[in-house]
Design goal:
The protein has 237 residues and is mostly helical. Helix content is 55%, strand content 2%. A two-stranded antiparallel sheet has the order 1-2.
């Protein structure tokens, strides 16, 4: 359903769209971004101006949507703008362990959630050390020792590039809201249907039509201990 506040029309309405992007409700802003994306260079200019004005504050998923339009655009000016102002992406890729989160940001910016999910586990194994990297999965004791900064970077990347639908903090909030009931939690986020676990990869939903909290995956089939360690981590306090 289109918000009644939205004014659509030719490119001459660009000022109206710009105003609504800056001052409209979240719902209006969300609908304005794809409209601007269709207006060619004039629309891209508004999105670039929008991102620059907000660059002093932590990125939200609204910034993520604007960034994704520019990142996936073929326009040379958009590429040049991002290279100059956001060379590492819209989320600062902070790491206490020298981990490079750039590939994860790129996968999320193109909405390749399946690749992003694989990269998330890969980067978390890198965080845990060479032994975990080799075995390709985590022990809950390794998760307990993760640096807060790195977990927050991974989580922020997922939040910003998924309209706030995906991320460990989203999953944790759902789990707490269900009174920490694991069975209800698995069903709610689409990891289980009745007694049947969702099969990897084909039964998972790799786009924004998935239930809230559906991604990223953790190796839940090894039991709850890894995800319980994630949810108990001080990164979310």
């Amino acid at each position: 359903m289109t918000d009644p506040m939205i004014v659509s029309g030719p490119a001459s309405d660009i000022d109206s769209l710009r105003l609504q992007l800056i001052a409209g409700s979240l719902q209006v802003q969300q609908q304005i971004i794809p409209q601007l994306a269709e207006l060619g260079n004039e629309g891209l200019d508004v999105l670039m101006e929008f991102l620059l004005k907000r660059s002093d504050t932590p990125a939200t998923w609204l910034d993520g949507k604007a960034y994704q339009v520019l990142y996936n655009s073929d326009a040379p000016k958009a590429k040049e703008f991002l290279q100059t102002n956001f060379p590492e992406g819209i989320v600062p890729l902070k790491s206490e362990s020298g981990i490079n989160y750039n590939p994860l940001q790129q996968a999320l910016a193109t909405q390749d959630f399946q690749a992003a999910d694989r990269l998330t586990i890969q980067k978390m194994c890198e965080l845990a050390g060479p032994t975990a990297t080799q075995r390709k999965w985590l022990y809950f004791t390794e998760v307990e020792n993760f640096p807060t900064v790195d977990l927050q970077t991974i989580n922020h990347l997922w939040l910003v590039h998924s309209e706030g639908k995906f991320g460990f903090s989203v999953q944790r909030e759902i789990w707490l809201g269900l009174g920490k009931n694991w069975d209800n939690f698995w069903t709610k986020i689409g990891w289980k249907d009745g007694n049947n676990w969702t099969r990897y990869p084909n039964e998972f939903i790799w786009d924004l039509s998935a239930p809230k909290g559906h991604l990223p995956l953790s190796n839940q089939l090894r039991g709850v201990r890894v995800i319980a360690s994630l949810f108990a981590h001080p990164a979310w306090k």
